[in-house]
Backbone:
DNA sequence: CGTCGGTTTGAGTAGGTTCAAGAGAAGTGG
DNA sequence: CCACTTCTCTTGAACCTACTCAAACCGACG
């Protein structure tokens, strides 16, 4: 699956700067010891399959991934995007099987950590233990925020939510007010619970309202205040309401 | 908040049978040591407020709770229901603040565990450590399943999802084919991302189709196969489709 | 240069919402 | 115990958002 046979390299300096801030200094060296740097992955590469045995955690170094949830019948939906510095595969701790398909959105690089090794290390290091808990919990509250988004927001609000959230989470381009969109409109729609056409319509509306500048792979935020107003459902200011439904 | 001053009792035998199966035997006694049984809570009691300091984990012993996610502007949505044997407050590990309001749906009983104590115990017990990780991860994949439900299903599918899921998760009444509904139609609608009217219409349709028997506080499942067919989106068999949107 | 996937825009439709009003159930106080 | 209030539940009718279907456009790549 992830042919780690010949390409085992210790990427200590490579990923060190990419580790989440909460990882304690005391274990960074130990983590580097057990890390395996995978060769570059092409667009569309499936890093993990739903249901496959949960043997390693992944850390994104470059590129971007989508996490796809599969339904019983063949339906599927994207439940999150992963950018450099984020872990992938955390859901595996539940059933010791991956909970999603993890697919590269473009040329990407990741390194992997053996689950057993991480668990063993966490036993000895209280800080890493706390860090793991914190990370899982953070993912959980993110997922629940997404539940709120999917269940209670209109199309325009969903898009404003995505753009503002992406910007504050550092998924933005270096200039600070552009957001990168490594995924297709269809993928974005899947994540937001709408069709690709609806995604395009909302983005177009935002562009016509001079709130954003739209490129194929990035969105430049021009008027953050207006976006926030739309997110909060500023009445009469735009089509589509869906207020109420407490 | 939770006046634990005078009512400190050690409910060892009270909650022991209610602990999740994954809690290792070796720590049940220690957990019992630090548990505090709270006095009975009335319907509507708010056990935890969003943003309050995360000091204790709760375990439901009797009754039922809803976990409410708050939006910035005052909106809110229910992101989950908790029944006896389930922990509440796990999201607190992220920011050391509760991520939801936890509200009793009816007369309920819970016991609480100090977070610091649980963490300390988990340091010493590898099994409890694994158990905590597993529990958090399980909540995470549940939340992601709900994302799928909210983003990709029609009203009828959502209801089928809820009923089938409730039955297999043991939220059902003792007879095994009835599902208890401790929440109002409005609360159920909030969780499923629909209005109370839509909830009622779908339930009525299921009743007319002889798939379920409906009471105010419980639903009796008469034809599970049909429910499953509706969940998978059996075409032409019922109004509302929304297939496609991969 | 032609094909193919991703994108964009338009017209029509339908599933779910909103609004309104009545039927039940539950709690309150005399 | 019964009237009274109050809340939840239920049903109907009109409306509207977002989906579906269809067709044109664009860029990438062989």
Residues:
């Amino acid at each position: 699956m992830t042919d780690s046979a010949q390409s085992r390299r210790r990427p200590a300096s490579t990923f060190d700067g990419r580790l989440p801030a909460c990882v304690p200094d005391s274990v960074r060296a130990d983590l580097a010891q057990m890390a395996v740097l995978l060769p570059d992955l092409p667009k569309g590469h499936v890093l993990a399959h739903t249901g496959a045995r949960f043997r390693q955690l992944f850390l994104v170094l470059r590129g971007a991934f989508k996490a796809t949830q599969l339904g019983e019948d063949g339906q599927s939906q994207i439940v999150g995007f992963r950018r450099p510095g984020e872990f992938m595969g955390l859901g595996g701790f539940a059933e010791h099987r991956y909970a999603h398909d993890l697919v590269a959105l473009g040329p990407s690089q990741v390194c992997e950590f053996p689950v057993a090794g991480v668990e063993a290390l966490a036993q000895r290091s209280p800080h890493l233990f706390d860090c793991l808990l914190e990370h899982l919990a953070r993912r959980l509250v993110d997922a629940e925020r997404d539940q709120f988004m999917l269940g209670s927001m209109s199309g325009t609000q969903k898009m404003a939510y995505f753009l503002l959230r992406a910007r504050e989470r550092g998924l933005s381009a270096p200039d600070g007010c552009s957001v990168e969109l490594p995924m297709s409109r269809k993928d974005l729609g899947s994540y937001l619970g709408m069709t690709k056409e609806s995604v395009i319509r909302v983005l177009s509306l935002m562009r016509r309202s001079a709130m954003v500048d739209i490129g194929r792979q990035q969105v430049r935020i021009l008027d953050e205040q207006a976006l926030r107003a739309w997110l909060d459902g500023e009445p009469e200011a735009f089509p589509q309401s869906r207020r109420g439904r407490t």
Q: What stands out?
A: The longest helix of chain A spans residues 126-152. Confidence is low (pLDDT under 50) at residues 1-7, 235-246 of chain A. The two ends of chain A are 46 Å apart (CA to CA). Residues 184-186, 196-197, 200-201, 204, 216, 242, 244-245 of chain A lie near DNA strand C (CB under 10 Å from a C1').
